[in-house]
Design goal:
The protein has 364 residues and is mainly α. It is built from 14 helices and no strands. Helix 5 crosses helix 6, helix 7 packs across helix 9 and helix 7 crosses helix 12.
């Protein structure tokens, strides 16, 4: 026991050190290649109405982002409880979302991704253990990835049709290749999920057989986990809720694009709807890379690379720098604010769960 804590501290220190180094490197890239700084030299709100709109959209953005998992989790709860109208507890749904958004931003190297499934599993809803929560969140991420890639190429095509000049052919080629690669990964993940949903037990047995030579116990455990993941995919697809989840996700990303466009307008940066759509997509892809706390560095590189396709950063100057800084700070501050009601909702759920039945401390 005494050796465990020092090792844990060393691992944490190593992770944070790697994270900070990654942030510094990416910030250097943003500064050296694009001239974008973490803190702009000057900041001016050119359009107050647009600034108010951007801030006012954040609660809607957060609610859509947190609530859309209902379409994935409600069928699981209904199937497990034998009650077609049963739903995943909304306090746990929104509370876990609001809190995990902040955790995801704060923890280094994308480790915060684990927070949402853990919080969902701790709600102890019928049929929803850690494996089911991971499956639901994973499917949500795959849908987001495919939508982001669609937004990228759709936004670039629309911008080109509007005769918007791409400032750098090299950046355009790099962004396109990166988008194509990420799109292939997300599409492959979706195909695997659909195939697994068609035969959960068979996939579980297959995984168990693959790992059995290493350890029969490990094979059995991994096989059961894969089967439960596939059963969650099957519940969603069988309930025909996938389309609803996709439509709500489209709405969520539309709000995100509108918010970014409003921030650009407030900063005095002229961006069309097509350019704003492509910019959101490029930033969304860039922050998928493991990086520092609050996505520092990866965000700046993604935002700068996107803007460099549509404007001359050196010529635009302060408005571009103010836009990047504001778009970086707004989600972070919004996550801090939304985490407060999120923590309150989770506390209510825990009290209700404790009153209904004593917790056994096991995530099934």
């Amino acid at each position: 026991m005494s050796d465990g804590r020092p090792r844990s501290r060393r691992r944490a220190a190593l992770l944070w050190s790697l994270s900070l180094v990654a942030s510094l490197v990416m910030l250097w890239v943003a500064r050296a290649q694009f001239g974008v700084r973490l803190v702009p030299d000057a900041f001016e709100v050119v359009d107050v109405g647009a600034a108010v709109l951007a801030i006012g959209l954040h609660p809607i953005y957060a609610a859509l982002r947190a609530g859309r998992l209902a379409f994935a989790l409600d069928p699981v709860v209904a199937h497990a409880g034998g009650e077609p109208r049963a739903r995943f507890d909304r306090g746990a749904l929104y509370g876990s979302g609001f809190v995990s958004f902040l955790v995801l931003l704060v923890l280094p190297l994308k480790l915060g991704e684990a927070s949402r499934p853990l919080l969902l599993a701790q709600a102890r809803q019928p049929g929803v253990g850690l494996a089911e929560a991971v499956a639901a969140v994973g499917l949500e991420r795959v849908i987001d990835g495919l939508l982001i890639c669609t937004m990228l190429f759709g936004g670039l095509a629309a911008a080109h049709a509007q005769t918007e000049a791409f400032a750098g052919a090299d950046q355009l080629a790099t962004v396109s290749r990166f988008g194509q690669g990420m799109g292939a990964i997300f599409l492959g993940a979706l195909v695997c999920a659909v195939l697994a949903a068609r035969a959960p037990a068979a996939w579980g047995r297959g995984v168990a057989r693959v790992f059995a030579p290493l350890s029969s116990r490990l094979g059995a455990v991994l096989g059961r986990v894969v089967e439960r993941l596939a059963e969650t995919f099957a519940a969603l697809l069988h309930a025909r809720r996938l389309l609803a989840l996709v439509l709500v996700s489209v709405g969520y990303w539309a709000v995100t694009v509108l918010q970014l466009w409003a921030v650009a307008r407030a900063s005095g940066l002229p961006l069309s709807a097509a350019a704003a759509t492509a910019t959101v997509a490029i930033i969304g892809l860039s922050i998928q890379l493991p990086g520092g706390p609050a996505q520092t560095g990866t965000f700046q590189v993604g935002a700068a690379a996107a803007l460099s396709l549509f404007v001359d950063l050196a010529q635009v100057g302060d408005p571009a720098h103010a836009f990047v800084a504001t778009m970086f700070a707004l989600p972070l501050l919004g996550a801090v604010v939304m985490a407060i009601p999120g923590a309150w909702l989770l506390a209510r759920v825990r009290r209700a769960t404790a009153a209904a039945a004593p917790a056994d401390g096991v995530l099934r």
